[in-house]
């Protein structure tokens, strides 16, 4: 108080009497406005004019028009409102618009299951296509007119035979490369691209337990997964021809939200400027790829660096065919491919290092998972006929993905818990007409969402809700395990997503979710089979501080680990 008075006398000293009275009047007007706003805004849940539907509750705010917008910067703001409003929905006012936030699973399900025209569902996403992926207005209009057809092509990713083709391509890549996930070579010429990006440092070349390497786990894993999983979608040439692809992708990802919120290009924000440069590079690569695909599909000769285009997936081929048929420009195709490529790596790849981190820091669970997956990830050490001086790489003979999904509940529960703790997807919809959300179940209320209001489902609000997940900040895979009894009376353990919806829902639901499940189980299972990890120099595992990056959490500082090879059963040896 004393400092406010001191400040005020300082201000007064610099003003003449007339100026001072204007300043006093302005300040009083402002305070009256702010306190009146605070007094008249905010309300508990009320009912609409018909008396049938509820209007969601809303907290009060201080500043007219701006409303709650400033409070959104605080990480604890939305969780505090979740704990205050038990209805599962509340409304905030920001920049003059109503924004409803939903965190009760039944209301989120009701929102996702609304039968709205496809064009309405796509309308907001169209803005992203332009602001973030750089689609021109002309190509966006064409896409709008062919949206249902474009959407239908995702069957080549989400159902058979496409799903198996993409998954088998990843399995085949993992078989070929798992031994060079870490090469343990101090010579950069012999290291892989994903190692060089992970600040690799060989600690010991030939200790009693074999070589040890220090790496940044996030960088190593997300780049390894991108380099070996994406050939199944974009073919091998695309990934091999652009070794800097992933470097630019992660720089672009850092600026994704700034681009999505439409921060103008001229704002000198270094992260935004770097993101725009990265987008130019990525679009350049994808343009070149599309040019080569154009020639390939027309039966023309391509540059020798594009000799393996026949292994591009049916999903990508059929999209190009559709875009060609409807006159989407090559630049437009590059932008739509950027959207698909980004969706394919940005969400799942950073979750795999988190799953590894959580498993390695729980040695008991790690051993249980290793035991559970052993029949489905068959890895052996071939006979060494050259003596100890020569290292013979172990072999990943087979990875049975169906077995991992259906017979390994602890692994699957670890995947679900990793999604719960580390993913923070956010679905957003605009109401083009007054809409009633019918909450299902006992005591399910219906809510009226007015035309022109926005509806958000920040998945994290539910995923961190202690009412559903006790001690929500703790990673506990076992919480997702359920025991059931099968037809023969045997106990069966299963793990399901339950009330969680990390992939969204309805028409816009993630089209890569089936592949993401397979990818996360495959890579985690292969890596924990072939490698051991520990914190650098031993000791307890650090608990990294995190920041949100688009739809995932990322470590604020590099997540360094020491990695060494695991001893695998010798060929022909009983397990
Ligand atoms: C765990 C990993 C993943 C998560 C949590 C995730 C989540 C999501 C979410 C929340 C959406 C938006 C839904 C909406 O707008 O309501 C989405 C869209 C999409 N995802 Fe994923 N995703 C993951 C992995 C993948 C992968 C690996 C692929 C491709 C291989 C993929 C392809 C897509 C596509 C193409 C869309 C856009 C669909 C459209 O435009 O309608 N996703 N994803």
UniProtKB/TrEMBL annotation:
Organism listed in the record: Hypocrea jecorina (strain QM6a)
Transmembrane segments: 20-41
Keywords: Heme, Iron, Lipid biosynthesis, Lipid metabolism, Membrane, Metal-binding, Monooxygenase, Oxidoreductase, Transmembrane, Transmembrane helix
Subcellular location: Endoplasmic reticulum membrane
Protein's name in the database: Predicted protein
One protein family per Pfam: p450
InterPro entries according to UniProt: Cyt_P450, Cyt_P450_E_grp-IV, Cyt_P450_sf
Gene3D superfamilies in the cross-refs: Cytochrome P450
Positions bound to heme: 510
A molecular-function term among this protein's GO annotations: monooxygenase activity
Membrane topology of this protein: Single-pass membrane protein
CDD domains registered for this protein in UniProt: CYP7_CYP8-like
Entry similarity comment: Belongs to the cytochrome P450 family.
Cofactor list: heme
Domain of life, per lineage: Eukaryota
Gene Ontology terms: cellular component: endoplasmic reticulum membrane
């Amino acid at each position: 108080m004393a400092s406010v008075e001191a400040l005020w006398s300082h201000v007064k000293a610099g003003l003449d009497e007339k100026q001072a009275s204007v300043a006093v009047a302005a300040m009083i007007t402002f305070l009256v406005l702010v306190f009146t706003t605070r007094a008249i805004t905010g309300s508990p849940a009320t009912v609409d004019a018909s008396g049938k539907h509820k209007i969601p509750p809303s907290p009060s705010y201080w500043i007219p028009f701006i409303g709650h917008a400033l409070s959104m910067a605080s990480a604890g703001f939305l969780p505090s409102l979740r704990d205050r409003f038990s209805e599962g929905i509340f409304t905030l006012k920001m920049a003059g618009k109503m924004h409803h936030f939903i965190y009760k699973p039944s209301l989120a399900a009701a929102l996702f299951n609304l039968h709205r025209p496809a064009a309405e569902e796509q309308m907001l996403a169209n803005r992203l296509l332009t602001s973030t992926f750089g689609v021109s207005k002309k190509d966006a209009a064409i896409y709008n007119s062919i949206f249902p057809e474009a959407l239908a092509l995702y069957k080549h990713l989400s159902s058979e035979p496409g799903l198996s083709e993409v998954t088998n391509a990843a399995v085949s890549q993992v078989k070929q490369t798992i031994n060079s996930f870490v090469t343990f070579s101090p010579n950069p010429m012999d290291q892989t691209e994903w190692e060089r990006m992970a600040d690799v440092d060989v600690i010991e070349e030939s200790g009693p337990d074999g070589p040890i390497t220090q790496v940044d786990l996030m960088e190593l894993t997300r780049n390894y997964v991108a380099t070996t999983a994406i050939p199944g979608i974009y073919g091998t040439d695309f990934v091999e021809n652009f070794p800097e692809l992933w470097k630019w992708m992660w720089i672009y990802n850092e600026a994704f939200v700034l681009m999505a919120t439409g921060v103008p290009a001229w704002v000198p924000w270094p992260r935004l400027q770097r993101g725009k440069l990265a987008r130019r590079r990525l679009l350049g690569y994808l343009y070149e790829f599309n040019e080569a695909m154009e020639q390939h599909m027309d039966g023309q000769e391509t540059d020798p660096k594009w000799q393996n285009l026949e292994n591009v997936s049916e999903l990508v081929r059929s999209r190009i065919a559709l875009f060609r048929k409807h006159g989407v420009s090559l630049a437009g195709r590059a932008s739509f491919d950027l959207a698909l490529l980004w969706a394919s790596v940005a969400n799942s790849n950073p979750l795999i290092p988190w799953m590894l981190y959580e498993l390695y820091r729980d040695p008991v669970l790690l051993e249980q998972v290793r035991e559970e997956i052993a029949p489905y990830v068959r890895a052996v050490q071939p006979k060494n006929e050259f003596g100890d001086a020569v290292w013979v790489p172990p072999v990943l003979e087979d990875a049975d993905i169906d077995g991992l999904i259906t017979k390994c509940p602890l692994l699957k529960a670890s995947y679900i818990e990793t999604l719960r703790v580390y993913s923070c997807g956010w679905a957003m919809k605009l109401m083009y007409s007054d809409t009633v959300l019918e909450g299902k179940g006992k005591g399910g209320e219906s809510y009226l969402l007015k035309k022109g209001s926005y509806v958000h489902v920040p998945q994290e609000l539910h995923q961190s809700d202690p009412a559903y997940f006790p001690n929500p900040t703790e990673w506990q895979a076992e919480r997702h395990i359920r025991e059931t009894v099968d037809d023969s009376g045997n106990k069966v353990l299963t793990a399901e997503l339950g009330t969680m919806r990390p992939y969204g829902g309805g028409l816009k639901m993630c089209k890569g979710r089936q592949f993401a499940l397979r990818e996360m189980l495959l890579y985690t299972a292969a890596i924990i089979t072939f490698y051991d990890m520990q914190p650098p120099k031993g000791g307890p595992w650090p608990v990294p501080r995190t920041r949100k990056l688009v739809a995932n959490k990322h470590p604020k500082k590099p997540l360094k680990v020491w990695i060494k090879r695991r001893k695998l059963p010798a060929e022909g040896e009983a397990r």
